[in-house]
Amino acid sequence: MWVYEKKLEYPVNIKNTNAKLAQMIISQYGGPDGELGASLRYLSQRYSMPYPELKAILTDIGTEELAHLEMIGAIVYQLTKDLSPEEIKKYGFDAYFVDHTTGIYPSSAAGVPFTAAYIQSKGDVITDLHEDLAAEQKARTTYDNILRFCDDPDVIDPIRFLREREIVHYQRFGEGLRIATDKLDSQNFYAFNPSFDKKCCR
């Protein structure tokens, strides 16, 4: 399925450590609207998508989200790899450090570990696509929030790239929703369906 290139999708070259910023950015690794959840969501939803075009969109975006997960891991690692014990304590990174040292662990900015509850896969084309549209907007908002607290150009650059990709993904899922609604026929349940409603309401 994949051709793996041993380089990041977009370069990450951070010169200065920043434990506080790392604690925020880790949310896009394993938080509720992060890249891990997005990848697993889309790569799971593709199995029940009835149209090849939509399977392709989910596979493409789900795969790219893994590349974004790799970028976030690189950002967090580079922000924390050379922290001194004083910096670890000063910036409140000590609680994370006790459990994980400077290893990359999927959690939210609040320290909540990643959970499969973040992933939605309903098996219904319209429901899943609306979930995906919302997920991309929530991820974009999270990147907006990270940028509000970031003043390091080495971090701002890849975060802006990731934010832009969320917008592109949102647009692609919008195209997918249009494809799906164009293909729906009188047997679908997504609009008023007198025969279905009558049968269910007896």
CATH superfamily: Ferritin, core subunit, four-helix bundle
Order of helices and strands: HHHHHHHHH
Tell me which CATH architecture applies here.
Up-down Bundle
Q: How large is the radius of gyration?
A: 20 Å
Beta-strand proportion: under 5%
**SS-derived structural category:** mainly alpha
Question: Can you give the helix content as a percent range?
Answer: 55-70%
CATH topology: Ferritin
Could you state the oligomeric state of the chains shown? single chain
Number of helices: 9
| Total number of beta strands | 0
How would you sum up the global shape? elongated
Distance between the termini: 48 Å
Mean pLDDT: 91
Main sheet summary: none
Low-confidence stretches: none
Q: Structurally, how many domains make up the residues?
A: 1
Text of the CATH class: Mainly Alpha
Give a short synopsis of this structure.
With about 200 residues, this protein is mainly α. About 65% of the residues lie in helices and about 0% in strands.
Topology:
Layout: H1 19-25, H2 27-30, H3 35-45, H4 52-80, H5 85-90, H6 94-100, H7 125-149, H8 153-183, H9 194-200
Helix pairs in contact: 1-4, 3-4, 3-7, 4-8, 7-8
Description:
The protein has 202 residues and is mainly alpha-helical. It has a single domain (19-183, 190-200), classed as Ferritin. Helix content is 63%, strand content 0%. It is built from nine helices and no strands. Helix 1 packs antiparallel against helix 4, helix 3 packs antiparallel against helix 7 (125-149) and helix 7 packs antiparallel against helix 8 (153-183). The longest helix has 31 residues, at 153-183. It is elongated. The mean pLDDT is 91.
